[in-house]
Specification:
With 73 residues, this protein is mainly alpha-helical. The chain has one domain. The protein contains four helices and two strands; from the N terminus they run ααββαα. Strands 1-2 form a two-stranded antiparallel ribbon. Strand 1 and strand 2 form a beta hairpin. The radius of gyration is 12 Å and the shape is globular.
Length: 73
């Protein structure tokens, strides 16, 4: 089976992931997947700003992408 390739992230998508990870700690991927992606909810950060880029990632790349994704420090 061929390895699936994904597109590169847009700047706002990467920023949204970093904010989400910082606000949700070590289990951020589980929180994103189960609370927001599987329920098609838009995330609102602690600063009150909505992060629709996370919803766009869900629609474009899906949960298999999230499982493989590594957020670089």
């Amino acid at each position: 089976m061929a390895k699936q390739k994904y597109r590169e992230l847009e700047a706002d998508e990467l920023e949204a992931l970093k904010v989400f990870a910082a606000e949700n700690g070590k289990k951020w991927k589980d929180e994103l997947a189960f609370k927001y992606w599987y329920n098609a909810r838009v995330y609102r950060a602690n600063d009150g700003k909505e992060r629709p880029a996370l919803h766009r990632l869900r629609n474009d790349l899906g949960p298999s992408w999230l499982a493989k994704f590594k957020l670089e420090a």
